[in-house]
């Protein structure tokens, strides 16, 4: 049956970039015979305006049923003073939590045409294509006990880093599965030298590897050394798997290897559903960018590349994902630039819609 795709454009530039993705989804239906059963719904501030909640129960149920969910962005100044319980971000958090999306995939890919945009030297980043897999539902951001407690005459801030074997096992498997579709290499990062959770992490990753993925090359690195290597020689990596806290930091660091926030896609995957596909939410890394919303300045590429990830990881259409990524690469090589991609040398930027159309043209030519 036709795979289903639930689209949640959200707020600010979310609907603007998603409109370009819609054109591309339709292109694959018409030209590549890859039809999706697409439905759209509200999330974030847009959902709050309509229902008084940033994600309605009905939308949550549709997300649970969908083969993949594609989200734009949520939030904006209009909603800043809302009660925490109904803030736009809560819509996104509810999706992640109830779908139990434990593996956050953050690729860092450097298109040759943008290599001079990186904060590092061209040679270090040109052609870079790595994937950070961050554990997303456990670790120090969730561990108990937590809180600010009184101890004698001063207060103590407490968080607990805590990982169960099964939590490590499932994210390790996600990383090894990914590696098999990519460069067949996983580097696991923790601090087994100073943390108990790190010792267990290394042990479980090693066991999962030996039992189920001996064909994949596995290495281990302390996370601090990993941060250094990411900046020194990032191309040595293929897939990096790490915990929630280290992954948060390492993925932001990797993002700066590639240039603009407007270029970065992400995916969050959960357990396989009855049809074998993982629960999945795809979204650009950027937010709703209220400073440029409504002006046709948003770069739609992060959202377009998020759809490419959906093609690859939810629908097993790796070749079509490659086709879409090559189209983006071609458009950049031709010099098409939204304002966020303009260097100091200047030039004439194109609009959100023009960028989407340029990608469509490149797809037509593919
Ligand atoms: P942001 O990512 O929205 O914007 C940061 C800067 O990058 C801005 O100058 C913006 O114009 C630029 N930018 C972002 N995406 C771009 C794109 N596609 N093309 C061109 N330029 C782009 O982060 P900020 O400003 O911290 O947050 C704005 C709102 O978005 C807040 O309400 C925040 O809570 C929300 N947010 C939502 C996220 C999500 O939906 N996943 C993630 C981050 C923030
Ligand atoms: Mg962060």
Integer tally of domains: 2
CATH superfamily of the largest domain: Isopropylmalate Dehydrogenase
Biggest sheet: strands, sense, closure?
A: 10 strands, mixed
CATH topology assignment of the largest domain: Isopropylmalate Dehydrogenase
Give the ligands present: 1,4-dihydronicotinamide adenine dinucleotide, magnesium ion
Strand order of the largest sheet: 2-1-3-12-11-4-5-10-8-9
CATH architecture designation of the largest domain? 3-Layer(aba) Sandwich
| Helix content class | 40-55%
β-sheet strand percentage = 15-25%
Description:
This protein has twelve helices and twelve strands. It is of the alpha/beta class and 366 residues long. The chain folds into two domains: 1-108 and 260-366, Isopropylmalate Dehydrogenase; 129-256, Isopropylmalate Dehydrogenase. The chain has a ten-stranded mixed β-sheet with strand order 2-1-3-12-11-4-5-10-8-9, with helices on both faces. The radius of gyration is 21 Å and the shape is globular. It starts with a strand and ends with a helix. The model has no long low-confidence stretch (mean pLDDT 95). Residues 248, 252 line the site of magnesium ion. The site of 1,4-dihydronicotinamide adenine dinucleotide (NAI) has 22 residues, from α4.
């Amino acid at each position: 049956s036709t795979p289903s795709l639930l689209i949640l454009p959200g707020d600010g530039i979310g609907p603007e970039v998603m409109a370009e993705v819609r054109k591309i989804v339709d292109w694959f239906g018409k030209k590549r015979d890859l039809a999706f059963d697409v439905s759209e719904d509200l999330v974030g501030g847009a959902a709050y305006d309509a229902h008084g909640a940033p994600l309605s129960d009905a939308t949550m149920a549709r997300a649970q049923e969908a083969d993949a969910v594609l989200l734009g962005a949520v939030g904006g100044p209009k909603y800043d003073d809302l009660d925490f319980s109904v803030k736009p971000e809560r819509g996104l958090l509810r999706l992640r939590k109830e779908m139990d999306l434990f593996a956050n995939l953050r690729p860092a890919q450097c298109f040759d045409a943008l290599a001079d945009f990186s904060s590092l030297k061209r040679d270090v980043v040109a052609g870079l294509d790595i994937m950070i897999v961050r554990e997303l539902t456990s670790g120090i951001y969730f561990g108990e006990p937590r809180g600010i407690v009184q101890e004698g005459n001063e207060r103590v801030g407490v968080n607990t880093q805590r990982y169960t074997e099964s939590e490590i096992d499932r994210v390790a498997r996600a990383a090894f599965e990914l590696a098999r579709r990519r460069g067949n290499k996983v580097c696991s990062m923790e601090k087994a030298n100073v943390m108990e959770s790190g010792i267990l992490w290394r042990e479980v990753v090693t066991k999962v590897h030996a039992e189920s993925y001996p064909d994949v090359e596995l290495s281990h690195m302390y996370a601090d050394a990993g941060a250094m290597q990411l900046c020194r020689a990032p191309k040595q990596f293929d897939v990096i798997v790490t915990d929630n806290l280290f992954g948060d930091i390492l993925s932001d660091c990797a993002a700066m290897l590639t240039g603009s926030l407007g270029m970065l896609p992400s995916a969050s995957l959960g357990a396989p559903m009855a049809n074998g596909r993982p629960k999945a939410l795809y979204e650009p890394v950027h937010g709703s960018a209220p400073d440029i919303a409504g002006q046709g300045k948003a770069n739609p590429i992060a959202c377009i590349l998020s759809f490419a990830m959906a093609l690859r990881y939810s629908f097993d259409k790796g070749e079509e994902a490659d086709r879409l990524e090559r189209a983006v690469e071609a458009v950049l090589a031709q010099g098409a630039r939204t304002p966020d991609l303009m260097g100091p040398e200047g030039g004439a930027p194109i609009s959100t819609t023009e960028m989407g159309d340029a990608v469509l043209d490149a797809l037509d030519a593919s």
